[in-house]
Amino acid sequence: MKIYCVNTNKKYFDERWRERFFHENRVFTCCLKQLDLDLIEQGDLILAYHNDKRVVGVGVALEKGRQEDNCKNIKTLAVNWLWYSLNKKEYINLESIGKPSFFNATVIDWTKDIDKVELFEILAEKISKKGAKE
Asked: Virtual CA dihedral for 98, 95, 81, 51, nearest 10 degrees?
């Protein structure tokens, strides 16, 4: 299992797209970033990253990426979200789970950068406090 950051920043997606990520149990990439989803395998962990160094969702990839129906510019991937939040005050601070590398990409392999024990402890706490999904 690898751990991937999937960027949901406003630069790439407006708030409606971020809501689609969670409500449709999917992640999306568009235009030139489509090939990035090909890195993710079934069973990999997905961290939905949003502005200000915060993770707003954690899920498991259910498949490889595929073209969105009727749209050649969008690739999509099914995800079982273990936890997510649309509340701007509820998130996982990146500094609490390691100091992952950043570069201009939609999908980033954070497997070596994340403190997995800390991530799963925080995730378990969030799920037990508020249920699996808000």
From this structure: -130
Q: What is the pTM of this model?
A: 0.84
76-128, pLDDT tens digit by residue? Answer: 889 999 999 888 888 999 889 987 776 667 788 899 999 999 999 999 999 98
Q: For the chain, which domains are there?
A: 3-130 (3.10.590.10)
The alpha-carbon radius of gyration of the chain (Å, integer) is 14
Tokens representing residue 119 in the block: 């991530």
List Cβ<8 Å contacts ≥24 apart for 119-128.
119/3, 119/58, 119/92, 122/92, 122/96, 122/97, 123/58, 123/82, 123/83, 123/92, 126/83, 126/90, 126/92, 127/82, 127/83
For 99, other C-beta atoms within 10 Å of its C-beta total: 11
* Residues 6+ positions from 80 with CB-CB distance below 8 Å: 25, 59, 60, 62
